[in-house]
Amino acid sequence: MKRSPIDIKKKIIALLKEKGRSLRELDIKVNCGYRTIIAQCKELEYLGIVKIIKHERNPKTGRPYTSVELTELGKKQDI
Question: What is the pLDDT of residues 14-49, one digit of tens each?
Fold first, then answer.
């Protein structure tokens, strides 16, 4: 069954209410493609609901990664 973009966004916001997550974590937890996660997060960022943060280095692996956090507006969303 194909999920709508709004369902994916709701799941992303619900997961981010718990804590900030990497794009990879969201990919796994939401169970859809990495490109879909990026596209939905960019749209949510445009709306001011999330903030996408690029990190130079992951403390565990030493590799660069990108994380996503809710903004103050995003924390107020009732989902």
Answer: 999 999 999 999 999 999 989 999 999 999 999 999
For 2-60, the DSSP string reads PPPHHHHHHHHHHHHHH--EEHHHHHHHHTS-HHHHHHHHHHHHHTTSEEEEEES--TT
Asked whether the beta carbons of 48 and 28 are under 8 A apart, the reply is no
Closest CA to 53 of 68, 73, 43: 68
Q: Domain holding 71: CATH number?
A: 1.10.10.10
* Single pTM value for the model: 0.88
Element holding 67 (H helix, E strand):
strand 65-70
Q: What are phi and psi of 77, to 5 degrees?
A: -65, 135
Number of folded domains in the chain? 1
Structural domain boundaries, residue 54: 5-75
